[in-house]
Amino acid sequence: MEVRLQKLIAGTGIASRRKAEELIVSGRVTINGHVVKELGTKVDPDRDHVKVNGKHLRAAQPYVYLILNKPKNVMSTLDDPEGRPTVKDFLRGVTVRVFPVGRLDFDSEGLMLLTNHGDLAQALLHPRYHVPKTYLIKVKGVLDDAKIDALERGVKLEDGFTAPAKVTKVSRAESNSWLEVTIHEGRKHQVKRMIEAVGHSVIKLTRVRMGPLLLGDLASGEYRFLTDREANRLRELVEDRVARAEHPELDASGRPVRWMPPTEPAPPRPPKPERSGRGPKSQRPESGSRTQRSPEAATTGRRGPGGMKRPLSPGAKFRRPTKAKDVDAFRKAGDPARGLPAGRSGPGRKPQPNRRSGPSRAHSGQRGPARQSRNSTRRRA
Length: 381
What we know:
Blueprint: E1 3-4, H1 5-11, H2 17-25, E2 29-31, E3 34-35, E4 42-43, E5 50-52, E6 55-56, E7 65-70, E8 99-101, E9 109-115, H3 118-125, E10 133-140, H4 145-153, E11 156-157, E12 160-161, E13 166-172, E14 176-183, H5 190-197, E15 201-210, E16 213-214, E17 223-225, H6 228-246, H7 295-300, H8 324-333, E18 353-354, E19 358-359, H9 374-380
Parallel strand pairs: 9-15
Antiparallel strand pairs: 1-4, 2-3, 2-5, 5-6, 7-9, 7-17, 8-9, 10-14, 10-15, 11-12, 13-14, 15-16, 18-19
């Protein structure tokens, strides 16, 4: 499997990745006897022969994980140009080159993870993967509930709003208070700036947790290697967060994530538009009931809202009524559409006989004689 050249050099413990890039650019690295100065060149450790300063690279070192309780007034780097003490001074007996994951301020103390696993360190530091870090801080003054709510929602800093944090009250004194703050970002002096944004200052800051790792009762200035269980939990956490960030619909095992209801209530729905209709009965014009309408209104059209006439459908004026009371009203009013006088239903026409019931007697309400079928007549004949 091919890897980048600077990553291969850093994995052997010769130098950090940045120092390895400087070695490549200066022409002090060769691949199969050829000098390479281009960054990002990929090599195969099983096939290619890589030399740094004329010496073959050693085999890649196994991954090492340890935590250190960084004391106050110590730099969280491996070297300092000003000669101040660094965390490297407290790693006596560690033969493998490790580097700190993240930093703590010069006057802060607490848990620091050191390892030679570059990919894991990058995932732990990236805010995209939301690895939580918990700090125990001593604040000057007492924070009320409104200020704590502001910290939990996120406060505005010079570089933008902070992500929501988790704040817990630990204890309270007369003039100071202890808080436990959990964040997953890694901005410079973030916790101190958050407290200053709500009008207070930090007296003491100690990091007590990072992901699944706890500081516990480790003394200041002491370190210890992680147990196999702690290292496995740390790797599982990183793999799970990376999988969630790259595929939000899947978990670390590749299975679909179970749907969870939203924690925040849904926004209110917009009001429904008012329907355009006749409106309430109290606001309708008095047009009279259907029984009080004139026969002309029944033949020419119906009146709609506001007394407006509704247009008749095609052929409605040629339609003849079928009910007895409508027939009588139609005969009395005549047929204005055909120009017929009142009292007649047509020019000298008589009611047409019905096929089944004989002459039409809809106006009298009587039924004609039943019609016999042809089959029954033939049988009788």
